[in-house]
Amino acid sequence: MTGFPAAAPVVRGGFVLLDPTFGRPVRTIPFQFNPDTLTRTLEPQGIGNEPGDRLEALRLKGPPHESFKFDAEFDATDQLDRPAEHPREAANGVAPVLSALEASIYPTVDQLIAENDLAGRGMIEIAAVEAPLMVLVLGARRVVPVRLTELSVTEEAFDTSLDPIRAKVSIGVRVLTVDDVGYRHKGGQLYLQYHRQKQQFAALVTNTVADLGLTTI
Question: What's the predicted TM-score (pTM) here?
Fold first, then answer.
């Protein structure tokens, strides 16, 4: 007797934070539920601002400015019913995962104290501390270095300690390209892989003008 084939496991998207020096993962923040919709916006560089600018009309100065916007939902309601299996959620709701997202755009407390100590001694930090590199993972073929540009959190339910147990997070990110971080930076290497994957997908489109009812253009 043959049973039904097992369903393929659903791949979850999420963020990975990489050490800026060595490129090692320091924190992974998976989505509890994959987004229902995702909006990508691309703004080409090098397009002439005025019609008739013949020198610039077809020039591309570099990769387009690309951004992603989507909502991520987190819900600890089911985990609260099984505290032995999910002690973190039972004790804190979804506060840990929300804090992990928010902390990606904060300097650490130690960094703030160190900067304050330097300022107190009349010393100025010339370069700000480099934050971990944020990587948006949407499957194995979309691993994209990004910078968080928007984070809006709506907490929708709370436990008896007022810890949020359900939340919707509206997220906006901008793709980091080799123009932003260079070719040797880990973010630049990841961007080139992402860019190369786009080219490979584009090469799969093999239609001709005949498919549009034309013989030539």
Answer: 0.85
